[in-house]
Write a structure and sequence with these properties.
By secondary structure, this protein is an alpha/beta fold. The chain has 22 helices and 18 strands. The strands form four sheets. It has a six-stranded mixed sheet, with helices on both faces. Strands 14-15-16-12-17-18 form a six-stranded mixed sheet, sandwiched between helices. A three-stranded antiparallel sheet has the order 2-1-4, with no helix packed on it. The protein starts with a strand and ends with a helix.
Amino acid sequence: MISINNLSVEFSATPLFDNINYVINKKDRIALVGKNGAGKSTMLKIIAGLQQPTGGTVARPDGVTIGYLPQQMKLSDTTTVMEEVAKVFSHLDDMQAHLDRLNNELAERTDYESDSYQDLIDRMTTLTERLAMEQSENRIAEMEKTLLGLGFVRDDFQRQTGEFSGGWRMRIELAKILLQRPDVLLLDEPTNHLDIESIQWLENFLITKAGAVVLVSHDRAFIDNVTNRTIEISLGKIYDYSVNYSKFVELRKERVEQQMRAYLNQQKQIQETEEFIERFRYKATKSVQVQSRIKQLAKIERIEVDEVDKSHLSLKFPPAPRSGDYPVIAENVGKAYGDHQVFDGATFTIKRGEKVAFVGKNGEGKSTLVKCIMGEIPFTGTLKIGHNVKIGYFAQNQAQLLDGELTVFDTIDRVAVGDIRTKIRDILGAFMFGGEASEKKVKVLSGGEKTRLAMIRLLLEEMNLLILDEPTNHLDMKTKDILKQAIKEFNGTVIVVSHDREFLDGLVEKVYEFGGGQVRECLGGIYEFLEKKKLSSLNELELSKGMAQQSAVKVEKTDNTPKAADAAPQEKKPQLSYAEQREQQKMQKRARKKVEDAEAEIARLEAAIADAEQQMADGRTDNEILETHASLNKKLENAMSVWELASEEYESLQS
């Protein structure tokens, strides 16, 4: 469908891509992966036609539509949410005009037997069906369903877009793109500003309704569930695998091992050749052989070992100076914006050395409470910061606050004080900004590189209370693991705001749940918290709230039965076109298959758990069987969640 041919890109004479070729087919769901700065976002911009390559072409067939979600975007501040989203339907007028032109062309043609005439008929048929389908749909209902799926509530629909934060504005743009139903979706870090409920809704949408998808994401679970193909960008080349991310990791490990063996063999061959040349360079009787070896050496195509495996990010927070026993004590803390009470009555104590998580739906007050702790905004109640507490704060927008005109080195040089100034280049090297990378301007860095740079600034501060608000956004998976380990080893107190369940697992020992205007404490790690709530994922905190609201609506409708005249139109169901019926049948079939697959997976896991429990009953109590049992139970929780979502989707489609 879209063909990338001999693609090359250079920045300041440095190659980013070198002669890349691949094809995006219909229904491909591609995970574009690689280290930060490898060129993932650049690749999406080139496919979208927003950036021109240095060499090569991107072939996009006529009529193929592309939807592109960048990491950052701008929206009009003079429209409401619904007005902004409704802009996506302006293309219907263009489609009608295009159809009129095709009709006029058809009326003038007489080459009825030609291939081009048949092609014209096919294009008209496709366009007519698509136009009829889009015009027959209830646009308002589609817009509302999409916005609700992405976490908005009905009260938000008539609010000005300018009232929303950057994360929510990104959701508005995502809603517009999804409603367009483009043939190809290009998504750059779509989950960065979504809560878990919205992530799973988007995941389900992409699986059931999207065409081709190319996405950049560092959310392992998300790309595993959505994608069926993985393309890695490394050292200017691509490695294309027809598998999801988890399988790709296994295959990539094998590839790198083979690459390393080939590299070592080649180095041995080069060394032996160079030794022969040096040994016999000045012997006349060996001149022919020497010249032959020199030519042979020049022709060798040098094998490069993946730079990700040669680079190493070294991250360690400095030792924390001792603080008081209770760095944070909150008593009946509340925050309201006008008539909107974000939360109230928050009462809790965080002890020295504890690592805690703030979880819950976006907009429930997690970042707001952090700002209260930081003293950035007024609040009600009492909030005490303990003796000798020194706060290190990483905000969600920390990377965007960097001065784009400064170099990487200057950014750190301006905040470093004392002896640390002599070690700036060592620190930058530990964060993979060594050599020429330290002279790059901040504005040309990728999102992940900016996040790493902002993290360096945090490391230069003396602190014993570390507050991290969505620190993993834009970080690649390897860097997330390194950051997680550094936080675990930090001997101070830590508050983490995150929607990344995998990142929080094994990191925090206490969870604070935000929802319904309250802040509730739950002792134990993230999975203990989920188990106590009988949840399989953080999003069900919000799903339960949403179901309660829906129940309230249903009760209200029951108590206010519409009059017969009002009810009559509701009994009429719109007639579906043949194309719509066919598409609905396909969706039902896919949904039923997902339910069956989920049931099979549950049965498999239950059998495996029973086997593990039998081994434990027989006296086996080593760490391996205990870890296996715990892992299987976590997988079963996730499988049950998948089954519930699949069942709801199937029932919805049937009704």
